[in-house]
Amino acid sequence: MYFKFTFCPIILLLWASLSFAQNVNVVIHGAASIAKTDDNFVCVTLDWWPAEKCDYNQCPWGKAGILNLDLRYGALINAIKAFNPLRIKVGGSLQDNVVYKVGEVSSCPNFMKRDGLFGFSQGCLSMERWDQLNRFFNHTGVKLTFGLNALFGRNESQTEKGLWIGDWQPQNTRDFMQYTISKGYKVDSYEFGNQLSGSGMGEKVDAKQYGKDVIVLKNLVKELYAHPETQPKVLGPGGFYEEKWFNTFLEVSGQGIVDGLTHHIYNLGPGDDPNMMNKILDPSYLNQVSQTYKGVSDVVNKFRPQLGAWVSESGGALNGGSKDVSRTFADGFWYLDQMGMASTYDQKVFCRQALIGGNYGLLNATTFVPNPDYYGALLWHRLMGSTVLAVTKESDPDLRVYAHCAKKKPGVSLIFINLSKDRSFNITLSNAKPGDAGKPNYEFVGKQNREEYHLRALTGDIKDDIVCLNDVPMVQTDSEDIPAMDPKLVDASTPISIAAQSIAYVTIRDFEAPACV
């Protein structure tokens, strides 16, 4: 039960005003874009985990798994509808242990705790449940990616633990796709397997074998979906990036097979790490993952998959997330910074693990109440366009800044992330002088009011699980709708003020960026 504040406590405002203010000039390079994302860059996952999934002496999944989730809740429906549309990937660790009850498959077992993939027996998706899910997806306007079982028909090696050998058998997937087509269900893309690349996460497939099998999947999709305009894309491998493995599978599969190169990011490590908060607030630690983004981008530039690179799963902390951090305002420092960084490396989509379930769900697993990261994700989806701009600033690592063309033209949208506990920032903007790095930049002086969205923890403690937007607590209405998320209009002649340990989105309608025209 949440107490519904109507305003943020005044102590937060006093605390913010007492912090040391530092003046910073941010230069926006608006002449040309440095990257492009998909229009539906923000993505979330729905996972297969049953209630018995436990880590670190806790079992945080409850009935949030795909087979158990109650799809009738208004809070869940409204949270998805607010994105209009929301990209959802159905998949996760157990997807390679799921059979589809269609065609030759007659029995439909439930996941049971025992020896098997990730400690569970084989599970099953009945077509009755698939019907329910698709009615739900259609009603809420979901753009769907479905993760396929890439281990079907293989056997585990007797000589190398975790290695699955033999050819993938596509018959169960064929029957599943034929049923899906016969019902008119829309699938935007299919992802082949989960975390089978490189060393895997308990299970793995050889890169050459995976390359051969993904050709089989691509041909199956082309055969069953006759019209190119309605043909789902093929994504893979949906695992952790290892340069040699990724290059080998793409060399074997060749160009035009894998439409999108997908990989996973869990750069905060195990969910029980007592240093989790320190990692999130350490800019040098946050920067380390840029090497992964660069490596994936290099592979994309070499093999040129049509849809580029996707982060198809990222929950920050492994094994369900951190019970003390993932649900709090503090997690946004990691999450929104990751989306900003990924977009600068031309990653087209960023899928958060998970919409609901574990500790890292955007929604509470039992009440469906949005956690703070939900609101940060929704603002990104509404404000940040697909064209990514370069920004430069004076070297203060605690201030993170990313800029895009505004989603709704004209103008630019920026996100400011202040990791500092005791410093606020007063930001002035400049427009980079195109074509001559030696000339001074134009100081930007706007004439239209800025649209600002300031996110802060309710009481000033970043471990809070309620976020304030422009000093208004974000809590669902009595009808379980997402509350209004209106901007604060600010005089353009004043600096942009970013409070200590806060996050702000700012849209500037009269900023002239040729890349945004």
Account of the 3D structure:
This protein is α/β, with parallel strands linked by helices. It is built from eleven helices and 28 strands. The chain has helices at about 10-20, 75-80, 125-140, 170-180, 205-225, 245-255, 275-280, 285, 290-305, 330-345, 370-385, and strands spanning about 20-30, 35, 40-45, 85-90, 100, 125, 140-150, 155, 165, 190, 205, 235-240, 260-265, 270, 310-315, 315-320, 345-350, 385-395, 400-405, 410-420, 425-430, 440-445, 450-455, 465-470, 470-475, 490, 495-500, 505-510. The strands form five sheets. Strands 1, 2, 18, 19, 20, 21, 22, 23, 24, 25, 26, 27 and 28 form a 13-stranded mixed beta sheet that branches. Strands 3-4-7-10-12-13-15-17 form an eight-stranded parallel β-barrel, surrounded by five helices. The chain has a three-stranded mixed beta sheet with strand order 8-9-11. A hairpin with a 6-residue loop joins strand 8 (about 155) and strand 9 (about 165). The chain starts with 9 loop residues before the first helix and ends in a 9-residue tail after the last strand. Mean pLDDT is about 95; it is low at about 10-15. Keywords: Glycoprotein, Hydrolase, Lysosome, Membrane, Secreted, Signal. InterPro entries: GH, Glyco_hydro_79. Belongs to the glycosyl hydrolase 79 family. It is a peripheral membrane protein.
